[in-house]
Specification:
One of its GO terms (molecular function) is transmembrane transporter activity. It is a multi-pass membrane protein. Keywords: Cell inner membrane, Cell membrane, Membrane, Transmembrane, Transmembrane helix, Transport. It comes from Arthrobacter pigmenti. This is Ribose transport system permease protein. By secondary structure, the chain is mostly helical. It has one domain: Orthogonal Bundle (ABC transporter involved in vitamin B12 uptake, BtuC). Helices cover about 75% and strands about 0% of the residues. It is built from 13 helices and four strands. It has a two-stranded antiparallel ribbon. A two-stranded antiparallel sheet has the order 2-3. A hairpin with a 2-residue loop joins strand 2 and strand 3. Helix 2 packs across helix 8, helix 2 packs across helix 11 and helix 7 crosses helix 8.
């Protein structure tokens, strides 16, 4: 009797399903690898130690800002104020040190508190004032940028040495990269290993079901916006530390890059989906694209076009994923 060959179709189907799931869960990481490989082939200057450190430094501000924004987007919100909150926090920190003549460590704490308080105000407007997060944070964008100009009178202010230290080096490793790693670990722990993190996913997945299940929805909303402001403040301190001064027009437009990083990293604008690791990869994708285009001497005008197309593709993929998801 001849042996009957075992059917291979089910095995191939299972293998194909695993590949599709891997690409769905790690599409941004695969894209980053392909992008890096293409740039390595296109220019020998890309995969060098100094350039890779430069990428890490450039990614630090956007990634830290995007970590906080991930909490908001997971909870089905949006925060358009993070760039202006970062600027106000840095300016407030510099004002505390230079104008109020208080210790540098207090300037750092004060800057972080300014960011957290700004985010909490937006959270209260959303949770208790029932304003759409788009409107509440758009208003906060204007308020915080205006306060930044009021505090600075339109001029840069020198930062405290403790803030400048954040823009320096720790041995051979730039401090912005160290802060990036620490902030990413803290954010991942909050989102994945705390009750509040589980509440964020529940609120983003279905707000009404979460409320009926006993989740304190209003408290969660205030918390996610406060955390977004806190991480934005840290990003602002990193930026001012690199410049050794707080600039009144700092971080203009950074909120768009931060939102793009979260979405490219696999988070859904509809809420309930998102990972800190994905957000980090999304930020790296944006920075690597800009870095590679600079190395290839591509005009900054065309860089804006490319970044816009990447964002559009990421949002389109998110829409398709939600459309094809089982209900």
């Amino acid at each position: 009797m001849s042996k009957v060959a075992a059917p291979t179709a089910p095995k191939n189907a299972a293998r194909g399903s695993r590949v599709k799931k891997f690409l769905a869960d790690n599409g941004a990481l695969v894209g980053l690898f392909v992008l890096g490989l293409a740039l390595f082939i296109a220019t020998p200057d890309f995969l060098t130690g100094p350039n890779l450190l430069n990428i890490g430094i450039q990614a630090s501000v956007i990634a830290v800002m995007a970590f906080g924004l991930t909490f908001v987007i997971v909870a089905a919100g949006i925060d358009l104020s993070v760039g202006s909150v970062a600027a106000l926090s840095a300016m407030g920190s510099a004002w505390i040190f230079s104008q109020a003549d208080l210790p540098g460590w207090l300037a750092v704490v004060g800057g972080l508190l300014i960011g957290a308080l700004s985010g909490a105000v937006s959270g209260f407007a959303v949770a208790y004032g029932r304003l759409p997060s788009f409107i509440a944070t758009l208003a906060m964008l204007s308020v915080t940028r205006g306060l930044t100009l009021v505090l600075s009178e339109g001029r840069p202010i020198a930062t405290a040495p403790e803030v400048s230290f954040l823009g320096g080096d720790l041995g051979v490793i730039p401090m912005p990269i160290v802060v990036l790693v620490v902030a990413g670990i803290v954010a991942a722990v909050i989102l994945n290993f705390t009750v509040m993190g589980r509440y964020m996913y529940a609120v983003g997945g279905n707000t009404e079901a979460a409320r009926l299940s006993g989740v304190p929805v209003r408290k969660v909303l205030v918390t996610v916006f406060a955390l977004s402001g806190l991480f934005a403040a840290l990003a602002g301190l990193l930026l001012s530390g690199r410049l050794d001064s707080a600039q009144p027009q700092a971080a203009v437009g950074y909120e768009l890059d931060a939102i793009a990083a979260v979405v490219i990293g696999g988070a859904s604008l509809a809420g309930g989906v998102g990972r800190i690791s994905g957000t980090l990869v999304g930020a790296l994708v944006l920075v690597v694209i800009r870095n590679g285009l600079n190395l290839l001497n591509v005009s900054s005008f065309w860089q804006q076009v490319v970044i816009g197309m990447v964002i559009a593709v990421a949002v389109g993929i998110d829409s398709l994923r939600r459309k094809n998801a089982p209900h």
